[in-house]
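Side project, low priority. Logging it here so it doesn't get lost.
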Amino acid sequence: MKASSSPAGPAPLAPADNSPPPSRRGAGARTRGLLLDSARRRFAYDGYAATTVRDIADDAGVNVALINRYFRSKEGLFEACLKAVIDELVHAAGAVADLEQIPGIIASHTAGVVATDGPRDALLLLLRSSGDERTEEMRTGLLRMFSERLASVAGWRPGDPDGDGLLLRAQLVLSVAFGITVLRASPGLEPLASATAQDLAEPLRELVDALLTRR
C-alpha cells in the first residue's frame, strides 16, 4: 500500500504591508488633483473670502470632507494652490535669459491657455489674499523674486547705486502684467479681452524696451 504524503505546512506569512493598494493611491492622487484645480479657479476668480469649501468640492465632484483629509482646511488648500503656482512661475522665471524673451513670456501668461487658462489663473491667484501670514509671505516673496529676476536680466545687481531705479522699473513691468490679467478677466473689455498672445507681444515689447533697456 502506497504511503500517503504528509500534508503541506502553512505557507509563510508575507511581511505586513499597510500601504493602500495602487488603485487607492491613484484614486487619492486624482481626487487631490481635482480639488487643487477646482480651488485654483475658484480662488483666482472669486477670491479667498467668497469661496467656500463646498463650492470647491462641488466643482470637483467629490465629498467636501475630502478637503480636510487631503489639505486639513480651506487655508491649507489655498496654501497648496499657492505653492503649485510658485513652482510654475519660478520655472518660467528661470527660462528668462534676456530682455527679448520677456514680452513673449508675459504675453503668453497674461493671455492664458484657451483650454485651461492655467497661466492666467496663476497670476490672478497671486493677487488674492487669504489673510494668513505665512501664505502672505510666500506670495510677497514670489513677487519680489520675479521683479528682481526681471531687473537682473536688464543688468540690475544688488548694491548697484542705480539699482533701486531699475528694480522699480521692473516692478512697473510686473504691475502691467498683473493689470492685463485682471482686465482680461472682465468680460466685454475689448479689444483687450480677446487679444491673443501675439497681439499683446508687440506693445509689451515697446513697454519693456522703454522701461528696462539701459541707454
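Brief comment: The first helix runs from residue 22 to 46.
Revisit when time allows.
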